[in-house]
Amino acid sequence: MKSILFMLIWAVLAPVAYAQMNTQQPEGGPGKMTASDIDAVVSAVAQLIETHYVDKAAGGRISSDFRKLSASGKYARLNDKAALSEELSKDLRKISNDGHLYVQGKKAVADNQNWEQIEKKAEKKYNYGFTRVEILDDDIAYIRITEFMHPKRSMQTAVAAMKLVENSDNLIVDLRGNGGGYPGIMEYILNHYFEGEPIELSTTKSSNGGSQVTFTSDLIYGKLRTGTPLYVLIDQKTASAAEYFAYTLQAFKKAVIVGRASAGGANRNEYFDLPAGLRMSISVASPVNPVTQTNWEGKGVIPDVVSDDPERKAVELIRAARKK
């Protein structure tokens, strides 16, 4: 077994991370929150959901239920940013059953450090999400991606990873624990498995009534992998953009999905600033796959092969296919 690249295997503070796999909420700054800060945060949360949630009817219900809950005064005693963020997120997930609906604070940083600075530090620390690239025995390549990070800063690493494995006929992409991220890198890797005229991958409908169609692109820097075996590993913490990757490849019959059903977070989220230096993630759009005419929201991506040891299983499947 020849290791090409091995680094730490977990990335934190994703720009678009799925809240159910990020249950520990970020800590606040050194100061405590005032009563007026708490009131302002709670009020803003309800209003933002009402205004921006992808499904207007559901958003109205979620906002109404949250207002009733907050009227009990349960948040008034939570004068610490971490504690308030955690409690709000827990309640919002329970009310909505939507893992993209949560409140977040800055983790172990000074209050004057912005979110982009935090992202950049995490990207460098965790090698832009590509934490292991390896050539296994029997011409099998393996890539571990813990998060799809900002494409502007991560693209060179993604290109290098795909170039390193391009001479292996079989590829395993490990997305276990990957809570999502930006779509750019995910789409770049997807493009290696499509050729010819642009193909529609999804139509994403937004809360404001608009829609956006995502197509394949021939913009890759290496060999196409069309027709070569691909195995994607997932688990219950695979979410959001990582689920999009697995679901799309499965729908177009480009990959075998191995592992356990994923988290079920199909809706796309955006962040909105809250008072006191907090921010909130809200589902603002929902993708529809042209093959299935639906998505994986609430259901997760269902693996083709169920396994508690998907890496070993994928290798077994590749070797068995060769013997046929």
TrEMBL record:
Gene3D superfamilies in UniProt: 2-enoyl-CoA Hydratase, Chain A, domain 1, 3.30.750.44
The entry's keywords: Signal
Molecular function, one GO term: serine-type peptidase activity
InterPro entries reported for this sequence: ClpP/crotonase-like_dom_sf (IPR029045), Tail-specific_protease (IPR005151)
Pfam family, any one: Peptidase_S41_N
GO terms for biological process, alphabetical: proteolysis
Signal peptide as annotated in the record: 1-19
Domain Tail specific protease: 85-308
SUPFAM superfamilies linked: ClpP/crotonase
SMART domains named in the record: TSPc
Domain of life: Bacteria
Protein name: S41 family peptidase
Species: Dyadobacter sp. 676
